[in-house]
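Agenda item 2: alpha-L-arabinofuranose complex prediction
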Amino acid sequence: MKAKLKINKDKVIAKVEDAMYSSFVEHMGRAIYTGIYEPGHRTADEEGFRKDVIDVVKPLALEYVRYPGGNFVSGYNWRDGIGPKKDRPVRLELAWEAIETNQVGIDEFMSWAAKVGVKPMIAVNLGTGTPKEAAELLEYLNAPKGSTSLALLREKNGHPEPYGVDLVCLGNEMDGPWQICAKTPTEYARIAHETAKLLKRIDPNVKLVACGSSNSSMPTFGLWERTVLRECWDYIDYISLHNYYRDDGDTKSFLSGSQDMDRFIKEVRDIVAEIASEKGSDKRIGLSFDEWNVWYHFRKENNFPPKWTCPRAIEEENYNQADAVLFSGLICSLLNNADCVKISCIAQLINVLALMITVPGGGVELKSIYYPFLHASSLMRGKLVSCKLDCPTYECKARKDASYMDCAVTEKDGKIRILVNNKSDSESIHLDISGIGGRMERWIEGKMTALEKKVCKLSDVELTPLSWNIIVISE
Ligand code: AHR
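Presented output:
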């Protein structure tokens, strides 16, 4: 097969925000316990954090890591996780039907985040929680040293200086019937509005993410976004999108999932524009795609670990090459919508539908999806530039015009960077790149891991079947 890619680097579409490369760690499965935290592990540091995990997370150059959930947050009392560890309560964790020992809480997460070099994106509980509890959490985190009792409590717990958290999620997936204390659009819009008001009073610098729909198939999708945006407009900065993709045996349809992500983003972007015009407002509300990945719901097909254990090893996915190729396409979609998508979190980072899986007491295994994320994060930054891809299409159950390729082009430091995949499992695609001068400097090909390929002429790129690729061109 043949394809053409014409790049117009003078037409800049948007800045790619660093927050585009963010992730998510939830108190779920083994993400925390025997994931990032395993006292007694041969690499554990003085706080019990696994250094072998830190070593493979750091190169991902994540901007934010979302914490502590996810569904978990809707039943979580943040006060359970502070103070001396021996005094912390052990509780039933109702989102994932596990036991929560609270040996890791907000202060430990902040410490881990600092070690990894990421910023925290903190979700507050709007399920069982109240605006007051959310406000007190932000006060605990950000109040100036010695200024209030909560600032003194933070100091007593070893952290006199404010943490300076600058991004907070107003709950999680509150439209989902599975959510602890799920809400109607109006119920959520009201509590989000009142919570946001308090949080902005405590710290006007904090940016707030309101919950959008849990996915684009939710029965209230659209109504939910409109209700929340109308009610919360003055206080919020972002609205969230979540979506997971899975191969149900029809791999061709699965691989066209990036086109679904594109459509979902554009629908939410249009709703935001509609409410802006209704309100006559110039305010820009960005999109925070703060949960996306491939998710097979492992537990449904396998023996599921017993309830009420800690850690309860759920949703440990084993990703293959097709997953990595779709994953690269999802990154293309997020990049190609960088004019409205300002934050995106791969869900999740570790052990739970994750880039990596640890063995308790053992090593850490990097999954096929780790590599497209790693290389996109290190190379696909800067500015999104215009391009026109002319490539073959195929018919599948999901659509008549599925594209054989996904592609995004960025420019940084005078270098053009192209993320491109080939979704065919049998045929190579000959790609002719035009519109720019210069020479290929680097070509990374993803086949389960990532390989350096031999550089070639820009008119002569041969994309092998079921591969993702990043090509760097210096001008
Ligand atoms: O990422 C796993 C779960 O998926 C999260 O807890 C929830 O927000 C979503 O349904």
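Discussion summary: Residues 26, 28, 69-71, 172-173, 291, 347-348 surround alpha-L-arabinofuranose (CB under 6 Å).
Owner for follow-up: CH.
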